[in-house]
Design goal:
By secondary structure, the protein is of the alpha+beta class. It is built from eleven helices and ten strands. The chain has helices spanning 11-27, 32-38, 43-51, 70-82, 90-104, 107-119, 236-272, 284-312, 318-343, 353-361, 371-380; strands at 124-127, 143-147, 150-161, 168-174, 184-190, 197-202, 213-224, 228-229, 274-275, 278-279. A hairpin with a 2-residue loop joins strand 2 (143-147) and strand 3. The longest helix is centred in the middle third of the chain and has 37 residues, at 236-272. The structure holds flavin-adenine dinucleotide. Flavin-adenine dinucleotide (FAD) is lined by residues 92, 126-129, 133-135, 159-161, 205, 208, 213, 363, 366-367, 369-370, 372-373, 376. GO terms for molecular function: medium-chain fatty acyl-CoA dehydrogenase activity. Residues 125-221 form the Acyl-CoA oxidase/dehydrogenase middle domain. This is Acyl-[acyl-carrier-protein] dehydrogenase MbtN.
Length: 382
């Protein structure tokens, strides 16, 4: 499918794209079935990505990162989506967790944790959602209460991406349970040295089969008071609100890349497969369906690119990021569903990438804030 070159692309990013494409084709594509069966990527994959400098691309070099911008993360995300990999949780690790540390960590915290995340020695996770609710963050139950120079964390989290492998978890907890949003703080737990920390099940999902989405339990886990992110307690909710636009843009970028990949895959298929003595592409229904899908891809690409440019300029606001998230994920689900239809029965077979793309797409409307919550955010801004 003819796609336009995004205006934010540069020669430097072209080189990164080439490196990322080769990396995914060589190191991810051949292992996807095995990763799905074991419900996680190989730990060595993180190390290989670290050795190639693909982790923490937008974190400053002085902390071991790539010294790039969000555009570097976007290129990596696009290439991951293009090759059909949904197992590797780098968007959470590099695109989200590392940015909480970089934005709110002290100099000492950044030097302690970011180089390990950039090398792959540490895998990062963020634990917001709880069994009792994910959308209503103000009412989380996990507590982090100060005792001397420590915090004692108790509670449970669920649906945590990278949960089975995480060495560092940013935990969203109430430091003042009597308060709503202003009682929330973010604390870092290093899982290797945290008695009372326990991983639960790696959850069975309808898609993202190779991603270790897990339950985490905190039974009076003690962390040094220095592991608080920010200059004081009660800043967690604001920190989340500041970082969520990037998380939502990450989902939008992956979604548009997924849309483009699905249309390209389907075009190849319908030019090859025949029915009633002619290629599927010759049927008007096939042509019209793909014409619609290609148009939706183009429109979505234009909007997501506009958001990437705004974010690079430091101007992406919360409602616009919410628009990008709900719009692109809805389009992704619709387009991939149409593509599955054009594959016929093969579109339902998990050995076909389009079937896996269909199952992987569904959650995009749910996580990162559900699309209903996105519409609430947008509506409030009107
Ligand atoms: C594969 C996967 C990976 C995930 N990774 C992470 C992770 O790394 N870290 C993390 O913290 N979380 C993660 N999540 C959790 C995810 O963010 C939550 O599932 C999501 O925020 C929704 O929360 P919930 O599941 O509790 O649904 P609920 O909040 O119970 O919502 C249920 C339904 O009610 C609707 N609803 C709720 N409130 C409103 C309202 N005010 N107005 C209208 N409708 C409303 C919702 O839109 C939804 O349709 C992940 C989830 C999945 C499935």
């Amino acid at each position: 499918m003819p796609t336009r070159r995004s205006a934010w692309m540069t020669e430097d990013l072209d080189q990164l794209r080439g490196l990322a494409r080769t990396f995914f084709e060589k190191e991810a594509v051949p292992h996807q079935e095995r990763w799905a069966a074991q419900k996680q990527v190989d730990r060595g994959f993180w190390h290989k990505a670290g050795e190639l400098g693909l982790l923490c691309l937008s974190i400053p070099e002085e902390y071991g990162g790539g010294g790039g911008t969000f555009a570097h993360e976007a290129v990596l995300l696009e290439e991951q989506a293009r090759c059909g990999d949904s197992a590797w949780g780098n968007s959470v690790h590099s695109g989200i967790v590392a940015h909480y540390l970089a934005s709110y960590g002290t100099e000492e915290q950044k030097r302690r944790w970011l180089p390990k995340m950039a090398s792959g020695e540490y895998v990062g996770a963020i634990a917001m959602s709880e069994p009792g609710g994910g959308s209503d963050l103000q009412n989380i139950r996990t507590r982090a209460l100060r005792h001397g120079d420590e915090y004692v964390i108790s509670g449970s989290k669920t649906f945590i991406t990278n949960g089975a492998q995480a060495d560092l978890v940013v935990v969203v907890a109430k430091t003042d349970p009597s308060q709503g949003a202003t009682g929330i703080s973010l604390l870092v737990v290093e899982t290797a040295d945290a008695p009372g920390f326990r991983r639960g099940r790696v959850l069975d999902k309808i898609g993202l089969k190779g991603q270790d989405t897990a339950e985490l339990f905190f039974d009076d886990v003690r962390v040094p008071a220095d592991n608080l992110l920010g200059t004081g307690e009660g800043q967690g909710f604001i920190q989340l609100m500041q970082q969520l636009p990037q998380e939502r843009l990450i989902i939008a970028v992956a979604s548009i890349a997924g849309i483009e990949a699905a249309v390209a895959l389907t075009l190849d298929y319908v030019k090859d497969r025949t029915a009633f003595g002619r290629e599927l592409i010759k049927f008007q229904n096939t042509r019209f369906t793909l014409a619609e899908c290609a148009t939706e891809a183009r429109v979505t690409r234009a909007f997501v690119d506009e958001c990437v440019e705004a974010h690079l300029a430091g101007e992406l606001d919360v409602p616009t990021a919410a628009m990008a998230k709900w719009w692109s994920t809805e389009r992704l689900c619709r387009v991939v569903d149409e593509c599955v239809q054009l594959f016929g029965g093969y579109g339902y077979m998990t050995e076909y990438p389009i079937a896996r793309a269909w199952a992987d797409a569904r959650v995009q409307k749910i996580y990162g804030g559900t699309n209903e919550i996105m519409k609430e955010i947008i509506a409030r801004s009107l």
